[in-house]
Design a protein that fits this description.
The chain has 8 helices and 5 strands; from the N terminus they run ααααβαβαββαβα. The chain has a 5-stranded parallel beta sheet. α2 crosses α3, α3 crosses α6 and α4 runs parallel beside α5.
């Protein structure tokens, strides 16, 4: 899996003239935050940090989302969403992947509070999207919105691990309430990521949600309380 050529070339062009050591330092700052369990909400994201995110993390995030949405298409072949809500959108990665899989989407609302991420998305990702899709940005914090607009497809990706426990359940319930058909959750394939998905699984099934994947059942997860965690890997082309 790889990013669209237009985005790869735009990333390369954006990095021209920036010393490699400078990009590496910015990427390491982001990487250490993820490893230490700090969210991007606690990091200072300037345009350089956002570009480092685009070079280092965007390809893998895009590959994970694309894989999950292709799985959704296979499992529910008659699912044809027209509206999309991208919560914690970053530069619009989930929107990009959603439009690659579901050509019937006519509008996407991207909720992202970080200005540097929105600028990165507007410069690199949005130009790669079909021109006939209505794209709207909302600069709100996803934890502060009391009610999300309704959409056929709602994506909440790489965001749950960045929200503390007291806010996570409210966030999930609001995302579920706004979902007209399918809610897609994607988190890092790490122990904290698995734990976030496991808790979300319990919350959403208790709220009446029907689990589609990856579990073949809605009973208690057999990995709960063990040293194993549920995760998947996919090969991708790095920038």
């Amino acid at each position: 899996m790889s990013l669209p050529d237009s985005i790869r070339m735009a990333l390369d062009k954006s990095a021209e003239g920036i010393p490699l050591a400078t990009l590496q330092q910015a990427a390491e700052h982001l990487g250490s935050g993820y490893r230490d369990g700090r969210s991007t909400m606690s990091l200072k994201l300037d345009d350089l940090a956002a570009l480092a995110y685009g070079i280092v993390r965007l390809p893998a995030t895009h590959a994970a989302l694309l894989d999950v949405l292709m799985e959704l298409e296979d499992l529910v072949p008659d699912f044809s969403p027209a509206t999309h809500l991208d919560l914690g959108a970053g530069p619009g990665t989930a929107t990009l992947a959603s439009l690659e899989v579901f050509s019937g989407i006519t509008s996407s609302l991207l909720v992202e509070r970080e200005p540097a991420m929105r600028r990165l998305g507007q410069r690199l990702v949005i130009p790669a999207l079909p021109e006939d899709v209505a794209i709207t940005w909302d600069d709100s914090d996803i934890t502060s919105i009391k009610e999300y607009p309704a959409a056929d497809l709602v994506t909440l990706s790489f965001a749950l691990v960045e929200v503390d426990g007291s806010q996570r359940e409210d966030l999930l319930r609001r995302a579920f309430d706004s979902c007209l058909d399918t809610l897609v959750l994607v988190e890092p394939g790490t122990v904290p990521g698995f734990e976030a998905i496991l808790k979300a699984r319990d919350i959403l099934t208790a709220a009446g949600g029907n689990l589609l994947a990856p579990c073949p059942h809605g009973e208690q997860c057999p990995m709960e309380g063990t040293e194993s965690w549920c995760h998947f890997s996919r090969r991708l082309s790095r920038t």
